[in-house]
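Section 3.1: Structural characterization of target chains.
Under the original work plan, the team committed to producing a structural model for every single-chain target entering the pipeline before any wet-lab resources were allocated. The record below documents one such target. The sequence was received from the expression subgroup and is listed exactly as submitted; it comprises 634 residues.
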Amino acid sequence: MIPDVRQIARATLCSLSLLGLATAVHAATPLLQPGKHTLYQRIITRPGASLFSDASGKDAKPLPGFEVFYVFGRAQGRVQIGSSAQGPVQGWIDDDHTIPWAHTMVATFTNPAGRNRALFLDTAQHEEDLLSAADSAARVDALTKGVQAGHSAPVVAMEPENFVDPSKNFYLLPVLDATQIERDSGPAIRMLHVISASTTTGNTARTASPQTLKQFKAGLVFVIDTTASMQPYIDQTRAAISSIIHSVQNTAVSQNFRFGLVAYRDSLADTPGLEYATKLYASPDFSQSLDAILPAISTVHDASVSSSSFDEDAIAGVKTAVDQVPWQTFNGRYIVLITDAGARSNDDPHSLTHLNIEDMNHLAASKGIALFVIHLLTPAGNAANDHGKAATQYRNLSKFNNAGSLYYPVPGGSPDAFRPVIQTMSTSMLQQVADMTGRPVAGLTPQDAKVDTKLSVVSQAMRLAYLGDTQHTAAPDIINAFTSDRDPADTLHRTLNIRVLLTRNQLSDLANALQHILDAGLAGRTAPENFFTQLQSAFAASARDPNAFSHIDTIGPLLGEYLDGLPYKSDVTSITQESWLAMGAVGQRTILNNIASRLRLYQEYESDPSLWKQIGQSHDDGERVYPVPLEALP
């Protein structure tokens, strides 16, 4: 049984539609892209463009480069433009001063910690040569050193050393074309044709003064399973926090670090005696002393009754930490999940969030949080055959760019085996902060302690994000160049994420389409052969042109033309009646579960204003855009 997905999905649609996001009928309508029925033509202006009052070229006014406009008409070698799909039109621009932008794809930098900085080359051939070279690592090193020495060709620009966070310093790096290149080893790599369209001013150089770094503040929140039998681990976590506080309370670094703790159990539906599903015992808070957390967590204890299954709602615990902690006040953002059991899946009737593992990882990453997992491999978990499934879940949940999975299994899972893991992890995080801020603490970690390379990458990422924010680091002024979405020297490391700018109207339409598919799939569980017939009826009933859905062969056309041609592989768009029947009940359920989770994720997007941006000069709220990762599309 798929629990309450209709209710969850409709809550998503409601939250979108209440803002008036449904597409309206307009007096002025932009031109459609060739062969499309709903996708409007859009252009980006080239530097040096002028805006004319009419197609004949009267009353020229300078127009900024890299502005985004809709196209309302074409005549005499000029293009009639407007900032909003609703109009009004603003004038005309020479066609040769525009760049067509069909897919509204953009690239955003990943945090550069643990990888080479992205290079932007002058021609496609130079980029192809770099990507296909047997010695690509050596070439990247030579090109980087050449730029640093002042010899740039064929490099047009290089990524800044600091992280440019689009949620804090919004920029446009439009992708005009993406070509996938297969390599002899490692993942495929996409070659990207990009132009610069920065909407803000700033610097691209890193200037890290000691005084700036002293202001770096970090928060570490433990999310701990407090079901029956977890008391020894609760005690060990509390002891680790107390020990660290005792070590640094009278040092300068005590001004830079705070702890928090979230406890979670499970749904109360079957077991009310669990008392709570999740509970925030203490939020990291610099308005209080470092040791203020100790009395706040002194009463944390394990449940007096057992929950209804071995798996617990770990995702609900993590989401409580993500949602209820004021992360915007912290530069270093760490969550450590401690558990001996797998997480309830998004289709579990007792899941509180109905988010799948990957979507929870997206939400944590969107707030710049590094999510660590300490997995206790206890005999009880082994007897329940839970270890393998849970390990896969937590490796995916804890993925962090260029560091791999922040997953730490504890063989045997005993309290004695857990003690050094939690102590070392906590002190290592604090040591990284102490070293970064120039406030080292003697004896905090042993001098011969092995360096945790994953934690080092995370720490560097936090540092670069902080410097990018405080130094107002801007995206480079590229103009026109070619690059790749992965580090040519090591394709396991992603340099750029490809996203598609969806307007609120488009996200509303996409959510509506997914709701129809979900309803048809659920209604047709007893007769899956009627799935496509039900889809056609549902879409025809809500469409302005019912005949447009009189016959469909695949689901793709139902989801919106703005997904056509994007460089991603969808589990949904290529489904046919035959493939739907062939995948069987289990495969169909997986598809429907993922759709339900996507709807829940889009609701989270809608509730988070930080990345909804207005590009151009439109004031229409429905035209605000969200850079949706390709991985978050259906």
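Confidence is low (pLDDT under 50) at residues 1-6, 15-26.
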